[in-house]
Specification:
- The chain is built from 5 helices and 22 strands.
- The two termini are about 90 Å apart.
- The strands form 5 sheets. It has a 6-stranded antiparallel barrel. A 4-stranded antiparallel sheet has the order 2-15-20-19, with no helix packed on it.
- Helix 4 (about 130-155) packs antiparallel against helix 5 (about 160-185).
- By secondary structure, it is of the alpha+beta class.
- It has helices at about 1-10, 20-25, 25-45, 130-155, 160-185; strands at about 65-75, 75-80, 80-100, 105-110, 115, 120-125, 190, 195-200, 210, 215-230, 245-250, 255-270, 275-280, 295-300, 305-310, 315, 320-325, 330-335, 335-340, 345-350, 355-360, 370-375.
């Protein structure tokens, strides 16, 4: 009853214009009313017959269009990993020329930096004392031989016992050994080149006294140089005798010295876990010098390997991936890479060789996404 009377009273009251009411409303209330109105309008408009709600969306507009990509086939070919190392150049043969005896130098018969043949006389020492000792030994030997010959004649008539004849024969043999020793000491007064090579700097002068072990000069056979370097043990299976080597040396520009591996050490260093390797390099013009620091590059033993273009690799969080195209979709595969060559990288695990890898457009695809693939020309 009270509600009816209130309703009648409100109908009886005069209507208030809307504009004055809006102007007197607080701004917060007015804003809330406007947002509510917009929400109602949006809700009503989304359910109309011309709306773009899910059931009325045209077919095929449920996702992005397929990405266009360029693919390349995987090559399988012989490939050896590239090994880079640094080492030291050594002469094929190298020696310090010294004297065996203490003596005075009488003549130096070589020039510094001279190419000499094997057996060439390099230095002459005073030979007077050695020559006299040889002459004395030869004279004693001659006397011993004469006594032995006379004793042999007397032993026929039994004028000389067999024991006495044996003593005479022993004296002859002793004399022969003394002559040989004296002749060797005389030979030691002449110092010769033990092999063909190039002499180094002269470190003595005529008239100087040399003792055993005193270095007179050096001799190096540098027509062929040895390059000694170390290789990590992980490349042990890739090394073999005869493997080609390319070497460069700072100070000789871009010149490349070609050679091959001639020796591989039988032991691995337990500290560095590296293997010592030697290669021989041709050096006919003498450009390489012993002790030269060089960098070496060689290819490991070739084996059949999967090779893909480098641009197909997608590194992510410390791992390496590639995208392959299967049934019109991009499938991501994790791979393990090996050695490289210009433009290509070896794949050790992750691919079987029958796939086609994406080389252009990897940034536009996702795992499992549809693609339109075109082979690279």
């Amino acid at each position: 009853m009270e509600l009816t009377s209130l309703y009648v009273e409100s109908r009886a009251q005069p209507r208030t214009p809307i504009s004055p009411m809006i102007s007197t409303m607080p701004r917060a209330v007015l804003g809330s009313l406007l947002l509510g109105t917009l929400f109602v309008l949006a809700s009503c408009g989304g359910n109309g017959p011309t709306g773009a709600s899910g059931s009325d969306r045209p077919a095929g507009s449920g996702g992005p269009p397929p990405a266009k990509v360029i693919t390349a086939k995987i090559d399988r070919r012989p490939f050896g990993p590239q090994i880079e190392a640094v080492g030291t150049a050594l002469s094929r043969e190298s020696v310090e020329i010294t004297s065996k005896i203490a003596n005075v130098i009488t003549r130096i018969r070589f020039a510094e930096g001279q190419l000499v043949a094997a057996g060439t006389v390099l230095v002459e020492l005073d030979r007077a004392q050695a020559a006299a000792a040889l002459a004395e030994a030869e004279a004693n030997l001659a006397e011993s031989r004469n006594q032995f010959n006379r004793g042999r004649d007397l032993s026929v008539t039994q004028a000389l016992s067999k024991a006495q004849l044996d003593q005479l024969e022993t004296a002859v043999k002793t004399g022969e050994s003394r002559v040989a020793a004296a002749r060797a000491r005389l030979e030691d007064t002449v110092i010769r080149a033990p092999f063909a090579g190039r002499t180094g700097l002269r470190k003595v002068s005529p008239g100087g006294l040399v003792n055993p072990g005193t270095v007179i000069t050096t001799l190096d056979d540098s027509l062929v140089m040895k390059l000694e370097f170390t290789v990590p043990q992980s490349f042990l299976k890739d090394l073999s005798l005869g493997l080609p080597v390319e070497a460069r040396a700072e100070g000789l520009g871009d010149r490349v010295f070609a050679g091959k591996i001639t020796a591989i050490d039988s032991r691995i260093d337990p500290v560095t876990r590296a293997l010592r390797v030697r290669a021989e390099l041709a050096n006919s013009d003498g450009a390489l010098r012993p002790g030269l620091f060089m960098s070496a590059r060689l290819r490991g033993k070739p084996i059949d390997t999967l090779m893909i273009p480098e641009e197909a690799l997608v590194p992510e969080q410390g791992k390496t991936y590639v995208f392959v195209v299967i049934d019109g979709k991009a499938i991501r595969r994790e791979v393990r890479t090996g050695g490289r060559e210009p433009g290509y990288v070896a794949i050790l695990e992750g691919l079987d060789g029958a796939e086609a890898v994406i080389v252009e457009g990897t940034q536009r695809v996702r795992d499992g996404g549809k693609v339109i693939a075109e082979p690279r020309a």
